[in-house]
Amino acid sequence: MATGVSAPGRAQIGQKTLRTDRWWLAPLRIGVILAFFVVYATVRIFMNKWYWVDAYHYLTPLFSPCVTESCVPGSSHLGTWFPKFPVFIPYSIITFAVLAGFRGTCYYYRKAGYRSLFFAPSACAVPEPHKKYTGERKFPLIALNLHRYFFYGALVFGLLNVYDGIQAFHGKDGGFGIGLGTVIIWVNLVMLWLYTLSCHACRHIVGGRLKNFSKHPLRYRYWTFVSKLNPKHGTYAMISLFTVILTDFYIMALSAGWFSDLRILN
Questions:
Q1: How far apart are the C-alpha atoms of 129 and 5, rounded to whole Å?
Q2: Using one digit for the tens of pLDDT, what is the confidence trace for 145-160?
Q3: pLDDT band at 266, cuts 50/70/90?
Q4: Which H, E and C letters describe 112-134, residue by residue?
Q5: Are residues 80 and 72 in contact, defined by beta-carbon separation less than 8 angstroms?
Q6: Please, what sign has the CA dihedral across residues 171, 175, 177, 181?
Q7: Nearest alpha-carbon partner for 134 in 153, 124, 120
Q8: Where is the chain membrane-spanning (predicted)?
Q9: Where do the DSSP E strands lie in the chain?
Q10: Nearest in space to 164 (alpha carbons), one of 92, 256, 105
């Protein structure tokens, strides 16, 4: 039996929509941004180069941590856990799997992806092209319910990124130093943590299923903090996409020798 706008009992309107505004502009804009990020990230992780600047200890978040013997000297902050990878396997395969899983199952990105990429629906009062709707009960969409588990992985990688950020305070001749790359890395860190901590799964984990907040004052405090961030979760999600790309591109450019880092101190 047909479902959705074609279901029996629903008004059968021939026009796709009676809206006269530019309803398609928002899903088009979001779709272009998401598609660009997916293409950029995919190309970068398969390049397997230009991810480390030894002079200043800059490591791009797309390749952190780099734990294979294929990594360039100095970039393996946590040591090498794996032997050399074949050329067709990205050095950042673990990072990509966890963080792509976190963003791909994110509630905001699910909404954005459904509306802009799958038109389900693309806007209010605009019917979706699919003949039926089964929800997220079958493979592969049922995997979206793993979001809270990917959230734990994102927390671990967030801490690793903080460690990378501390390493970025490295002077050219050793010791303490700050460059434009250091600033970019830490701006990206702030946005990544705002996106991660404003997550709906984070809000549920710190304060969900509590029947009495007064008996759990610390969890209530954390829940209140996350609740203040949560309304801007979508904003942080989109901004952090651009900061990740900017950070990776800047480090790639330095590593490739396209230009030199602007040093602020040492």
A1: 10
A2: 899 999 999 999 999 9
A3: confident
A4: HHHHHCCCCCCECCECCCCCCCC
A5: no
A6: positive
A7: 120
A8: 23-43, 88-109, 141-163, 175-195, 236-259
A9: 52-53, 58-59, 178-179, 263-265
A10: 92
Question: Across residues 138-143, what is the average pLDDT?
Answer: 81
pTM for the model? 0.89
Write down the pLDDT at residue 48: 95
Burial class (CB in 10 A: 0-12, 13-18, 19+), 73: exposed
Contact 186, 244 (CB under 8 A): no
Distances (CA, A) of 173 to 77, 252, 266: 19, 21, 8
**Is beta strand 178-179 parallel, antiparallel or unpaired with respect to 263-265?**
antiparallel
Q: Which residues contact 39 (CB under 8 A, 6 or more apart)?
A: none
Please write the tens of the pLDDT for every residue from 34-48.
999 999 999 999 999
In the 8-state DSSP scheme, what is residue 107?
Answer: H
Collect all residues with Cβ–Cβ distance below 8 Å to 232 and sequence separation of at least 6.
194, 198
Q: What angle do CA 146, 151, 155 make, to 5 degrees?
A: 155
Q: How many percent of the chain have pLDDT more than 70?
A: 96
